[in-house]
């Protein structure tokens, strides 16, 4: 299949179509997030401390005390201590999915609220075809799902592996979320049992709601910045320039405080912050207004 020609240069890793009923919508699969190995922007090599030479990992057999070649290695499933079921590549190839339809088969449409986020694994973008006529069904599906606030549950094969997925609208694009299988999602029943029967007082609940309201704001992805990543970059730059690295002070243990007292303090601090912010805003506005008046005041004529 010919790769989709995207004007923005987004690279697709798989090209196929969304299929349901007699409808087929050509799409390309593009990564929506950076691979985990690149998220820190820094990768380390393992070196020999004495000579700073990168270490090589060898395939070593402790029984024969020698290095073994790739052609001598097989996979084994350990069923008991030291007991393995041997699996060859040919065995795995025999059960590998050879689905070459390159189709995301939609099984059903569901309300998005019904899908617990715990089942969402990896996010991809579904890119439309380049031809205007082929983009119309993409936009039609996108707008229909937007209005109905629904997503599509489907299945597809990528590099011989089977994936279940959720297709959902994301702004003016379709996103595909690969899904964890039900058997891979752990139950929260143990936690629910632990908190069952624990009661909170109305006064505590009211204070907790006040604290929450004081921190209400809009979600801003730009605020999601990794302090560790910044500190790591600064550490490497400092080492590169020969600076001495200062060790951070140990973090003091958080003392155990009374819940009601902690909530009251949190509310008071939030109110103080609001007053300070409002006062600063008024001062800035007054200063700006005064400067504008000064600039606009006409020059007096001399007598």
Q: What proportion strand?
A: 15-25%
- The number of distinct helices, counting runs of at least 4 residues, comes to 6
Shape: extended
Secondary-structure arrangement, i.e. CATH architecture of the domain at 14-32 and 96-184? Beta Barrel
Structure report:
With 303 residues, the chain is α+β, with helices and mostly antiparallel strands. The protein has a domain at 14-32 and 96-184: Ku70, Chain: A, Domain 2. The chain has six helices and eleven strands. The protein has helices at residues 89-95, 132-148, 189-195, 202-214, 227-240, 259-296; strands at residues 14-20, 23-31, 60-61, 66-67, 75-80, 83-87, 103-111, 120-128, 150-158, 161-170, 173-179. The strands form three sheets. A seven-stranded mixed barrel has the order 1-2-8-11-10-9-7. α4 packs parallel to α6 (259-296). The termini are far apart.
What's the structural blueprint in terms of helices and strands?
Layout: E1 14-20, E2 23-31, E3 60-61, E4 66-67, E5 75-80, E6 83-87, H1 89-95, E7 103-111, E8 120-128, H2 132-148, E9 150-158, E10 161-170, E11 173-179, H3 189-195, H4 202-214, H5 227-240, H6 259-296
Parallel strand pairs: 1-7
Antiparallel strand pairs: 1-2, 2-8, 3-4, 5-6, 7-9, 8-11, 9-10, 10-11
Fill in the keyword field for this structure:
single chain; 303 residues; alpha+beta; Ku70, Chain: A, Domain 2; seven-stranded mixed barrel; two-stranded antiparallel sheet; 11 strands; 32% helix; extended
